[in-house]
């Protein structure tokens, strides 16, 4: 039925893009660019913390850096990266010709540059960019906030709208456009994790929109949602924020789990162990994520019963997460393993994410959290989950599918080198932060006590190495696209399974115009 | 056949998802009253009703006393002098007591203040009743003027034996500039 024509020429191809592959590509490049912006902020933070004392930036600007680093990385880099991956891969994995709502797909991408421009423009405003941390607790973000906060609020609104539209699109695609025979329990694990993530996004992002709307009303329209003087309550902000915020961390990590569940079977040359338990574990994690939010708020004066409930409910998440980790290990067990770059990154993800999960369990214990909260231990914990979980698996995904996207093979030696640089850099950056955190170094501080100097210097050196590894990744990708070895092999990887590997490499502009039949 | 079918089912899926989005946006705002109701039901957070209490029984437990402590705090930047006239009262549950807080405005302009109460331990909040309180209204003071602000309270006769001490804290907020903050009452 559909005409087979190529993409439009020039800028119009991208401005008016409705092809899932083009939009996916834009998402991926955009998030990669934002990754470098957020990474630059991180470099400023680590350069300032290289030595105790105030060297490079003043404390107010330092706080702007930590705030914007978090916001840009979460909303600008990680989330769009996985949405881009979903755009590229889901139609190809379920045998659909495109996403269900191609024009809305275009809109949800093009809202992102608008939102990020609004967010970054706050640096040039009077009073500077938001400096209240990525969690923007009231009243820091209302009564004591810089005037640019209003722009921040609108940026969050637009980012939320983009995510919600993207999720509706993904769900509509998965529910309606599966090829004949592709039942739910035959879907690739990446598709499953995205289906569940999309539900999380649809349920959580509107609550975030509500929270920032309340902030907006408190700032400009004289309401008192979070102002005690008018009968409101600042603690309420934390409840509303974390009701969004905790599902948000699973929004980030579940697609990463999906990627790992695709790559490990390929390089183990075995099917994924415990597929259905993986599906149920993912759904359980998603459900639990909505009923544990107050473990971020143990020290707000909750009653004992509340502390106990949130503590046990939080620790319960370790069970489905453990199911996933053991399934990955069982997939590798007895397999014919090879360690190409995607597999290296995936195994590192499993190992390092588990470490981050263990520190998460430590923080889940309410009485211990009283001592650890707001310390560098927390920083180490969530970077082990966010960076080693999301960024490592995203890098794995790029190496894994790049030959399918571009029709060219990356240089395996360079990629393995890049992995080891990233692995060493990452651990050198964040492992010492456990120690300084336990020893009492607070997070979000531009200066620190002298006894933390050595570990902080190690951390900073590690972060520069890790930053270099990302520039190296950019080089490898560009080199692959321009002059990589031709890879016409449909399957690319010996052990690869799934519909995307039945397509030509590079994947044609239009795929599955006639749906394949899945047996 | 395959070309037509997906279109139709997609248009069926979208409305459900949009309803979910709108419902969750509403739920975000529903958390505001829900928070107060839950805190109230569980008797946590030290929040106190800001309406005058109507006594419904005359029982006085004269063989028991509860130590009521008063603390005053100034919110960030509030220049008034604000302190309790008595730091503590030994109260028989069921009996009314009067006490007062002293406030003076040392600045050179008229100011309006709002006192926000909080009770520790939080679960004692539902046994501490205010019959009259200066916190029910905003307080205005001319430049350099002072005032004694009255509080009339009763400890509930039903108060559990486990509660020996109740601490009542008032935080004084400057609401002069913020005309839009309506009186709490």
Folded structure, characterized:
The complex is a heterodimer of chains A (519) and B (185). Chain A has 519 residues and is mainly α. Chain A has a single domain (21-502), classed as Cytochrome C Oxidase, Chain A (Up-down Bundle), CATH 1.20.210.10. In chain A, 67% of the residues lie in helices and 1% in strands. Chain A has a two-stranded antiparallel sheet. The radius of gyration of chain A is 23 Å and the shape is globular. In chain A, 55% of the residues are buried. Chain B is of the alpha+beta class and 185 residues long. Chain B folds into 2 domains: 1-42; 66-174, Sandwich (Ctag/Cox11 (Pfam 04442)). In chain B, 21% of the residues lie in helices and 35% in strands. Chain B contains 1 helix and 9 strands. Chain B has one helix at residues 5-42, and strands at 66-74, 81-84, 88-91, 96-104, 111-120, 128-133, 139-141, 146-155, 165-174. In chain B, the strands form 2 sheets. Chain B has a 5-stranded mixed beta sheet, with no helix packed on it. Chain B has a 4-stranded antiparallel beta sheet with strand order 2-4-8-6, with no helix packed on it. Chain B starts with a helix and ends in an 11-residue tail after the last strand. Chains A and B meet through helix 5, helix 6 and helix 7 of A and helix 1 and strand 9 of B.
